[in-house]
Amino acid sequence: xxxxxxxxxxxxxxxxxxxxxxxxxxxxxxxxxxxxxxxxxxxxxxxxxxxxxxxxxxxxxxxxxxxxxxxxxxxxxxxxxxxxxxxxxxxxxxxxxxxxxxxxxxxxxxxxxxxxxxxxxxxxxxxxxxxxxxxxxxxxxxxxxxxxxxxxxxxxxxxxxxxxxxxxxxxxxxxxxxxxxxxxxxxxxxxxxxxxxxxxxxxxxxxxxxxxxxxxxxxxxxxxxxxxxxxxxxxxxxxxxxxxxxxxxxxxxxxxxxxxxxxxxxxxxxxxxxxxxxxxxxxxxxxxxxxxxxxxxxxxxxxxxxxxxxxxxxxxxxxxxxxxxxxxxxxxxxxxxxxxxxxxxxxxxxxxxxxxxxxxxxxxxxxxxxxxxxxxxxxxxxxxxxxxxxxxxxxxxxxxxxxxxxxxxxxxxxxxxxxxxxxxxxxxxxxxxxxxxxxxxxxxxxxxxxxxxxxxxxxxxxxxxxxxxxxxxxxxxxxxxxxxxxxxxxxxxxxxxxxxxxxxxxxxxxxxxxxxxxxxxxxxxxxxxxxxxxxxxxxxxxxxxxxxxxxxxxxxxxxxxxxxxxxxxxxxxxxxxxxxxxxxxxxxxxxxxxxxxxxxxxxxxxxxxxxxxxxxxxxxxxx
Amino acid sequence: xxxxxxxxxxxxxxxxxxxxxxxxxxxxxxxxxxxxxxxxxxxxxxxxxxxxxxxxxxxxxxxxxxxxxxxxxxxxxxxxxxxxxxxxxxxxxxxxxxxxxxxxxxxxxxxxxxxxxxxxxxxxxxxxxxxxxxxxxxxxxxxxxxxxxxxxxxxxxxxxxxxxxxxxxxxxx
Amino acid sequence: xxxxxxxxxxxxxxxxxxxxxxxxxxxxxxxxxxxxxxxxxxxxxxxxxxxxxxxxxxxxxxxxxxxxxxxxxxxxxxxxxxxxxxxxxxxxxxxxxxxxxxxxxxxxxxxxxxxxxxxxxxxxxxxxxxxxxxxxxxxxxxxxxxxxxxxxxxxxxxxxxxxxxxxxxxxxxxxxxxxxxxxxxxxxxxxxxxxxxxxxxxxxxxxxxxxxxxxxxxxxxxxxxxxxxxxxxxxxxxxxxxxxxxxxxxxxxxxxxxxxxxxxxxxxxxxxxxxxxxxxxxxxxxxxxxxxxxxxxxxxxxxxxxxxxxxxxxxxxxxxxxxxxxxxxxxxxxxxxxxxxxxxxxxxxxxxxxxxxxxxxxxxxxxxxxxxxxxxxxxxxxxxxxxxxxxxxxxxxxxxx
Lengths: 623, 173, 401
Hints:
The complex is a heterotrimer.
Chain A: H1 29-32, E1 36-41, E2 44-49, H2 54-60, E3 84-87, E4 94-95, E5 106-108, H3 112-127, H4 143-150, E6 175-177, H5 187-195, E7 202-204, E8 211-213, H6 230-234, E9 240-242, H7 246-254, E10 259-264, H8 266-271, H9 285-295, E11 299-302, H10 303-328, E12 336-337, H11 342-351, H12 365-380, E13 388-394, H13 398-403, E14 418-421, H14 422-431, H15 453-456, H16 463-477, H17 481-484, E15 499-505, H18 515-518, E16 531-538, H19 540-551, E17 561-565, H20 583-599, H21 609-618
Parallel strand pairs in A: 1-5, 10-11, 10-13, 12-17, 13-14, 16-17
Antiparallel strand pairs in A: 1-2, 3-4, 3-5, 6-9, 7-8, 15-16
Chain B: H1 3-20, H2 27-38, H3 43-53, H4 57-64, E1 78-83, H5 86-90, H6 93-104, E2 117-122, E3 134-136, E4 139-141, H7 149-157, H8 162-172
Parallel strand pairs in B: 1-2
Antiparallel strand pairs in B: 1-3, 3-4
Chain C: H1 20-26, H2 30-39, H3 52-61, E1 71-76, H4 85-92, H5 94-108, E2 112-117, H6 125-137, E3 154-159, H7 169-176, E4 200-204, H8 205-217, H9 219-223, E5 233-240, E6 246-251, H10 256-263, E7 270-273, E8 279-282, E9 300-304, H11 310-324, H12 330-347, H13 353-369, H14 373-377, H15 380-388, H16 390-393
Parallel strand pairs in C: 1-2, 1-4, 2-3, 5-9
Antiparallel strand pairs in C: 5-6, 7-8, 7-9
């Protein structure tokens, strides 16, 4: 998992004030790094590698040091100071998260000075933190609240603001900023700049007028925010949250004239259990089917079905582009980019608009399904599409923006009416009086019930590529993927490395072209002996690395197909997923997804009987 | 802003970047040059600068808003900064401050409607033995008394033409 | 109305001919230059008092990344309220300052120097540029300085933009790198990882001028002045209620009372030593010594006469810190604002002793838990004024003031 999230030196632009620098100790640094050193923490000795922070060393011996500005995905800031400890020989207290161990230290973590400092820091933060815990989205899942309880805050020592100081910024379809609750830990800033390279959030002003803001304090809806919601996932308080539409969904459910249909994406199923106290990576797919029906949805469909449609679209489009370029000699944009991540799509539109033609013309699975429901499904079931409300359960905050894009109305109606995040759905299920893990298992509704493993793995980085390759390889080579890759697991594109690059030589081609693309490509002979080059990138900082390489004419410019996901880890790390997030949590969710894939009877999109049946009449128009 | 003006500003910033370097370390010098020329760094300028040094506009704004001598809002042709720290305070800065407000018709932190003068507090100007001290753009005045204030301002007004000073008096009369 | 010279006594620096120190340094090996500075016991003149020789040794031993350059930065961001001795040095002893930078570069193996000049001193720029040009013409800067093969060094001037915190060395480096002037986490220290990640020595203006003097006259000469732990002479910026405010030179170790006598401040009510971030010494403690072992200071002395309202003084200092905190860490950002609020409560006579005690505890937290020296020292004035003048401060009524 080396390359994940922690953006390498080549893209990280966080100010040096907010990260641990390489530790030089004089002499030959390389010899010292990797060396072990013994530190004493509250009387317990522990041996740690040179350069380990006091915080990490303390965790090794089970000593908990509170943190607020520290986050496992982010570079060190050392600004909240709540993690201060006493280091023998130092006059001042030191921030445990930012203090690298380079010599034998004696550390004390709960002396009078330390306890007083932590209590004071909490009281200072609370003095400007406006808002009632009851009416906060992060009630019971708030790091500030938890610390206030831990440190016995029973009155506001330094007062407390009693009225709102800053109006909420609700200009974005995806992210709401409630700066009354901001404690200036700057996790969102580091996320936006370091992990995502979007850079819309920054610390502005100085001293006690410092605030987290945008360029010229513009509303979030007016700047180049890609709606990825990664800032929400890392906010310790309720200062950032997704724009919640669950009230509108309830209203639709309550309305007897509305037929309310929900599609659920694979990643929420892998994550939602966390909202009910389950370990990360506990799949809830079938329990959720039952729960959603009980909550009042008329039909529960599997987004994987339209993920399969997406694969067929993107796969055939790729083959079509290759044919056009190599056989007909027409100018075609290469590499082809995936288009299912709305965060990535908006990133590309803002930062690399000249590459929009490279995006696959396929809609995202969410929007494809919306269109299918309001056309094919409405007709087949004789329901007026105006009476259908489509809801999408997504791990994503950007999907809220996507479903509101004006061009997303191919059915003549808004294809998807509401996008809900995993967190909001957990809230609705709780509101319906349901404890999800206790639910009996239930199936998805027909006629889209059958989905393949390829659709499931869309949730993890590399999943779309793997799914596409399963189909494309089988089309082109005419042999079962299982013969080339054990259990059809295309392992090289899996894993959390920031950017993956894979070459697949095509030795033999099938003499037959499948019926579905025969009208485009009469023969695969032109691909014989060719090498298919693909790449996978997740998190837009990694996407940026690939895009800059493409611009410079590097190896990625020679790729044929690149999967881009806006969020680190892919959708399982999406901005709508349960909070907290960390590399370990995302890995656990990914595991759940690959297990579900392995258990699927059908694992290749083009073998999905429902999708091949419905794809021809409803093949969505290019977006 | 007119397209031609934008083009001119863009060329100017490119020239500054060529001189100071197209790296982040050149950011503050570029912004300082713009501040001197235009008495502020406009939103368009910030975006161009961001492009030139390869960072996000929000980061440029973060820097501009941090430093007291950089402004993202239009400020006066003359920036008048009165030292507010203790030595100048003991030497009688309060009356000088009051008189500055009277002469200019604005409060501290404001700019005159004609865009000619901005009035600001300065943290220590390093003239503590000769206070109260005043910095007008890059010129220092020391041992300023309330009665000297109008002359300092008049000297500035001369830049705007011979009649500007008289007109200002008439307006206040 | 025009600034006049602030010098009130002849300075030792008058006796140092420009060029003497550098010539002496170039005859020595690098290790010997550092050895001389270490032997002089020179400690940083900016206020913190870190031994200069030790700092140089660390920087000399540090490896630059990718064999990159090392830097010498002259911290001319003199922003501490009540401090102006660097102004005198920069204008009247300019060569000694640049010479000190050149000696430092020679000692640590740096090729580039940066003078970080505070924005408020922009009017000095033509003078400083002129001196740099003259030094280049004279072969004192540039390639093979004064015929020393392989010794290449030049100095750029970079302007500050109005931020007191940039006097903190890591904030200064952040500012040079084009960031907000927010102090870094330390370790690592600039001597290892400084400007652009390279080993960087940041020294105060007076420190560097003193280096020129030490190289010219020898470590033993310097060490003979002052006290054992505080060697040498020191410039003082004296202002406030005294007969002759200005820049003075005294050996370190002088008592407050003796100093007051020389500047015409006898009979004062209190003296602020070390500027806004220093401490307020009441008349009862005028016997204390100004030296690193007792009252450490960068040289700012502000005299308060008998009639002065000490709460007003404290308020002025807290207003300064509320304006100048970088806003990054919680104790400093929110703490200073709370202290100012507390002073406003005291002004209204609305602060209980219990709350005042809580604020004093908060001061301890700020001194211990703030990220940098600014927050760690900003409560000093509050603590000393509240402690020594409690009777004057508590129980005010609107009519009294």
